[in-house]
Design a protein that fits this description.
By secondary structure, this protein is an all-alpha fold. It has a domain of 40 residues. 59% of the residues lie in helices and 0% in strands.
Length: 63
Amino acid sequence: MSLFDDDRPKKQPAHEIGADLALLSVDELSLRIDLLKQEIERLEAEKARKSASKSAAEGLFRS
């Protein structure tokens, strides 16, 4: 083990869709739920941004 291992940024736990949940604690499940909610918010924001851009482009070509 290197002396510099503690300096590395800690990787956030990822969730794999369909993964076995039996071995996770309640705290770990809560963390994954929070991470997935944040990801859903990010996806919805990107979808809204793209929809607005598409609507603006469609409006431009209708005129």
